[in-house]
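User: Structure please.
Assistant: Input sequence and predicted structure:
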Amino acid sequence: MKEDDLPLLLSIRDFFNCGTVQSQPDKRPNHTNCYRYAVSSNKDVYEKIVPFFKTHKLKSSKIKDFILFSKISEMIHNGVHLNENGLEKIRAIKMQMNFGTRRVREIRSHGGNAK
């Protein structure tokens, strides 16, 4: 989000009592600094973020991505990611998100980062 919306992101972070607000500077001309809210703890995602959006349904095309996202969070919660077969299942679900147009950038394995 644009720098003007920083207070909104901070209030979201405070509401969920988890995550961080990170700067995403943009060096391109005519672009303003942006910020994003990120939650890296799957426990927080599974226990706070996913239940909130299950109760307060998204009213956009992103609902499909959310369903996949929540499935991945549950799989990680259940330890599916701790072996290569489970990690591959998670990668396959991730590839369905955003209409499958984005590459899987990085999914952490139990032994480090996997690409």
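The two ends are 27 Å apart (CA to CA).
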